[in-house]
Structure to design on (224 residues):
């Protein structure tokens, strides 16, 4: 059987360009950095999700951390920290399969932390700030497993250090951020709980009014 030129081209494209795998989304429900990090200090990262566990080393000199010091009181900042490739080696286990990443060859992870904006405190105020943050990460490049998209939210504890009075203006000389992932209920869950509590309250009020008027509860009336 002979193939026409268009058919041969189509076969070549099918073999040369396999469809890219769709990443698997994983919600991170707990974990975080083992200690505060900044532009020179790294930490161990532990993440946990549904049938998912990850441990990675975040090298302080290999990632990025912004904004860099100094920090002027009254200024609004948002912390953006990240690591990737050989600067974030580790392994994860998902659905019983363990994958190592972060070597010179093979899969790698790209990880980012982004905090909400917050105001730098005065030098005579509290040197710490608790700020919400979002974690996003992607692990890809493995020939034996699907790429993963990780997402989580939590609280960043940012600690300002090294108050400097000279040269002016007065400022904080350094700072560190510790990231802790916390699972927060979805808005729909709050609505369901509130509706349930509201229904229980309404039933209680009706029974109390019935007792005031007749001296009988719903159960007593139903038994007559």
């Amino acid at each position: 059987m002979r193939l026409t030129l268009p058919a041969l081209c189509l076969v070549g494209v099918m073999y040369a360009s396999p469809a890219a795998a769709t990443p698997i989304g994983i919600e991170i429900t707990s974990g975080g950095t083992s200690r505060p990090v900044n532009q020179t200090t790294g930490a161990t990262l532990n993440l946990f999700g549904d049938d998912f566990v990850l441990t990675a080393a975040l090298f302080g000199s290999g990632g990025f951390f912004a904004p860099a010091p100094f920090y002027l009181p009254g200024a609004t900042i948002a912390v953006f920290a990240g690591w990737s490739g050989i600067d974030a080696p580790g392994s994860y286990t998902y659905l019983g399969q363990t994958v190592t990443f972060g070597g010179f060859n093979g899969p790698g992870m790209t990880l980012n932390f982004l905090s909400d904006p917050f105001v730098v405190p005065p030098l005579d105020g509290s040197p710490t700030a608790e700020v919400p943050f979002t974690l996003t990460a992607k692990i890809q490049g493995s020939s034996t497993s699907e790429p993963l998209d990780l997402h989580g939210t939590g609280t960043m504890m940012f600690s300002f250090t090294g108050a400097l009075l000279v040269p002016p203006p007065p400022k904080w000389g350094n700072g560190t951020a510790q990231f802790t992932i916390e699972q927060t209920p979805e808005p729909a869950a709050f609505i369901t709980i509130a509706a349930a509590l509201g229904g229980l309250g309404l039933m209680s009020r009706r029974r109390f009014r019935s007792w005031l008027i007749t001296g009988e509860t719903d159960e007593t009336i139903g038994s007559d």
